[in-house]
Write a structure and sequence with these properties.
The chain has two domains: 125 residues, Immunoglobulin-like, CATH 2.60.40.10; 31 residues, no CATH class. It is built from four helices and eleven strands; from the N terminus they run E-E-E-E-E-E-E-H-E-E-E-E-H-H-H. The radius of gyration is 18 Å and the shape is elongated. Pfam families: V-set. This is Ig-like domain-containing protein.
Length: 164
């Protein structure tokens, strides 16, 4: 799971390879944090709390890959050309959550969902996705001073957790 963050209002832990945290980023903006491993499927929420009436044309998803230019993924009820470059791994659920199948390291970054309700209320949700790779885990353990022999002994555990 992710480390403690005093700015978060709630923390929900999933399976050993998945962590989710919720919080408030700024006035009018909600925020969620997900950590998954390469190859997983993840569902990023568009609405937190009560479901209001949304028109599919009023939902927008965009992606910010580690500080690069924002890329529009879903707008006016359809996926954009940039989203199609993700080889059909994206879908949007009935409640407008973004589903990413077979997650890759390149999917790490910030995802933003903007909704505009029929009564013109604007909602913005930022979802930070961190994708963990084997190399990342080896780096973390080396920073903690875990030597190669210990890593070799724990190899079967890593392979189990990382599906390899």
């Amino acid at each position: 799971t992710l480390g403690p963050n005093p700015h978060l209002s709630n923390h929900v832990a999933g399976p050993p390879h998945l962590a989710t945290e919720w919080g408030i980023a700024a006035a009018g903006q909600q925020r969620a944090f997900f950590t998954v491993k390469v190859g997983d499927e993840v569902t990023l929420p568009c609405a937190i709390g009560g479901q209001e009436e949304h028109n599919r044309d009023r939902i927008e998803w965009w992606f910010d890959h580690r500080g690069s230019k924002n890329v529009s993924l879903f707008r006016r009820g359809i996926f954009t050309e940039k989203a199609n470059a993700k080889s059909g791994r994206l879908s949007v659920t009935a409640n407008y959550s973004l589903v990413i199948k077979n997650v890759t390291a390149n999917d790490s970054g910030s995802y933003h969902c903007r909704t505009n309700t029929t009564d013109q209320k604007l909602s913005l949700i930022k979802v930070d996705l961190n994708v963990v790779t084997r190399e990342y885990l080896y780096h973390i353990f080396s920073q903690l001073g875990v030597g190669l022999q210990e890593i070799v002994l724990l190899r079967s555990l890593f392979l189990c957790l990382l599906g390899g």
